[in-house]
Structure formats: structure tokens, C-alpha cells
Design brief:
The protein is an alpha/beta fold. It contains 14 helices and five strands.
């Protein structure tokens, strides 16, 4: 695998993912930026404002909304992204489409190449401070409720099997009716871990809202930087820089990123628990090994 770049999320992906929360002027500016990416680095802020039909102040506020100090800071990051994207121009989702003529070798090459791209995207979104907060929240929770629907239910089950083996009190649900009932009974000090690729699964978002209303904390794992689930979560962990206009029509890439995040959370919890975590792991390992020998 190539050298992993942590916390280097592509600014274009951020703009795309923020579309649902932009006002009219900001959307006009965003559309202009996305359609003229390579030209922006040679333009002044006044030219960008004029060409996009917006204003100087709109451009400044937009850059700050993206997390930059101003337009100059935004252009610097955009320039770096253009250079990086050019070096990886063949590594987009479309290049991994499988046709009927593919051989087994070609399918394997494309599949592993896609996984590598997904994991790099996941790493680029990783914020270590946020990760640390999520780990502390999990370790301090009196109870963990882990939920997910569809393909994300498999990831939720995996998270449950990992966390319970190191002594975390937790429950996992994939039935929307059941996990919404449980969320409505959540208490302060408990944590809901909500997994949804789109961040828009109505039942998952509803459960997160119910848990929040009850005083519980919410950790979400999803693909989108801006989504209804993200807006109701205390801590958000992201799996790819996928945006709302570019859905991948298969679930495998989504779950790869989810599993990576879950394994990272699990390993960080183990490190913080130290010897206690190892003891708990050994106890559950011995219990499962005994079951296998019968």
C-alpha cells in the first residue's frame, strides 16, 4: 500500500459534501469552483466573486466555512490537491467498474485497487483528536448501543463482537423498530454508535435524535461530511470522501471503510485499557476457544 496520508482531505470533496447546507449564493460559488478547479489558482478573490456572480464577502465567508483562514489559504490547499489528484488520476471509482469481459485476475486487481483507494480516502478524513474523544467516550460509557441497517448492520455486528470482548457493556440491533425503541429509553452516560453509509437512513437518524433527546451521546460512522446523521452526532467519523451526487452502486467499498474505523477504535481502546484490556481479551478468547473444541 502506498504511503498513507492522514488528515489530508481533498478540498473539492469537502465542497461537494457540503452542498445540502449551502445557501443560494454559496451554492453558486461552489458550482463555479467545482466547474473551474484548475483556473481558480490563478485568479484573485475579486475575479472569483465576479465570475461566480457573488461577492467578495461571500467568497471569504465560504472559505472560512470550509475551515480556512481566507481565500489565500484555500488556494494553497487547492493547489496541493490538484497536484495530488493528478498523481492519482487513474484511481477513481469509475476505473474500478467490473465488466462482463473481466478475467479473475483483472477482477482481483480492480477490487484490491478499489479497497486501497477507499482506505486512503478514509485515512485522509481521520482527525486524531476526534478519534481520541471517541475512544474516551466508548471507554467511559455505562452502556453502548450499536446500530446499523442493511450492509451497515454487518459492520455494527462486527463492532459489537470487538468491543464486547474487551469488557464493554454493549448491545447491537439491526431492526429499525427495536433500535428506535432502545434509543428512546437511552440514558445520560450511555452512548449510541450509529453506522450508516449515507448518513441519511431515516430510522438510524431518528434513533440518534431520540438518544440525544434522552441525554445520551452519539458517535456516527458514515461516508458523508455533511448529512442529517452528522448534524445530530456528538462525534463524527468518516469512511470516504463520497458526496451526495456520486453514489457507489455496491456496498462493499462502504463496509471496508467502516471496518477500518471500527478496528482503529478497538485497537485504541485496547491500548488505553492496558493490562486490563488484555486480561479481558484472554478471558473471552478462552471462552470462545472452549466452545470450538466441543
Amino acid at each position: 500500500m502506498k504511503s498513507i496520508q492522514f488528515g489530508t482531505v481533498n478540498v473539492i470533496a469537502v465542497i461537494q459534501s457540503m452542498e445540502p447546507v449551502l445557501n443560494t449564493a454559496e451554492k453558486a460559488l461552489a458550482n463555479y469552483l467545482l466547474e473551474n478547479v484548475n483556473d481558480i489558482i490563478s485568479l484573485t478573490i475579486e475575479q472569483v466573486a465576479q465570475n461566480s456572480g457573488t461577492s467578495y464577502s461571500t467568497v471569504v465567508r465560504f472559505c472560512q466555512k470550509l475551515g480556512f483562514q481566507g481565500f489565500k489559504d484555500f488556494k494553497k490547499k487547492l493547489t496541493n490537491d490538484i497536484i495530488y489528484n493528478e498523481s492519482r488520476k487513474d484511481e477513481n471509482m469509475e476505473s474500478y467498474t467490473i465488466s462482463y469481459e473481466e478475467s479473475e485476475r483483472q477482477i482481483c486487481e480492480k477490487t484490491f485497487g478499489q479497497f486501497e483507494n477507499i482506505l486512503q480516502s478514509c485515512a485522509s478524513l481521520l482527525n486524531f483528536d476526534t478519534l481520541s474523544q471517541a475512544v474516551d467516550m466508548i471507554l467511559n460509557a455505562s452502556m453502548l448501543y450499536i446500530i446499523g441497517s442493511g450492509a451497515s448492520a454487518a459492520s455494527a455486528l462486527y463492532a459489537y463482537t470487538q468491543l464486547i470482548r474487551i469488557g464493554r457493556r454493549c448491545a447491537m440491533e439491526s431492526d429499525p423498530t427495536i433500535y428506535q425503541m432502545k434509543a428512546s429509553l437511552a440514558n445520560e452516560g450511555e452512548v449510541l454508535i450509529a453506522i450508516s453509509s449515507s448518513g441519511r437512513t431515516v430510522s438510524v437518524v431518528s434513533a440518534a435524535e431520540k438518544a440525544k433527546e434522552r441525554g445520551a451521546n452519539v458517535i456516527s460512522i458514515s461516508d458523508f461530511l455533511v448529512s442529517p446523521l452528522q448534524q445530530t452526532s456528538d462525534i463524527c467519523l468518516y469512511t470516504t470522501t463520497r458526496n451526495s451526487k456520486k453514489y457507489v452502486d455496491i456496498d462493499i467499498p462502504h463496509t471496508i471503510g467502516q471496518i477500518a474505523i471500527i478496528d482503529i477504535l478497538y485497537s485504541c481502546c485496547c491500548v488505553k485499557l492496558g493490562d486490563k484490556g488484555n486480561q479481558l481479551y484472554q478471558i473471552t478468547k478462552e471462552a470462545t476457544d472452549m466452545g470450538k473444541s466441543k
